[in-house]
Write a structure and sequence with these properties.
By secondary structure, the chain is mainly α. Helices cover 52% and strands 0% of the residues. The longest helix has 16 residues, at 8-23. The chain is globular and about 30 Å long. The mean pLDDT is 95.
Length: 79
């Protein structure tokens, strides 16, 4: 059974992904196409009200596709 909400670190990552997507003015559909996943998969992970989160492989894929450091997704201090 999946948890119903994200942990603080999962929320942080989801917020960072949303920041990137909005800065680039991409829809969830456009963003998910760029990282080769379905819009539903992406939307569930970006949504702060679901218990599913981006894994390290997804974070790495996003970082590569948009030419940013994976460290962008890690807070400076533990949450």
């Amino acid at each position: 059974m999946r948890p119903k909400c994200k942990t603080p670190i999962q929320l942080f990552v989801s917020q960072r992904v949303r920041e990137i997507r909005e800065e680039l003015a991409l829809t969830q559909e456009q963003f998910s196409e760029r990282i080769n996943c379905s819009r539903g998969y992406f939307a569930d992970r970006e949504n702060p009200n679901t218990g599913v989160a981006f894994n390290l492989e997804a974070i790495n894929t996003i970082a590569k596709e948009f030419n940013i450091s994976p460290q962008f997704f890690i807070p400076k201090k533990a949450l």
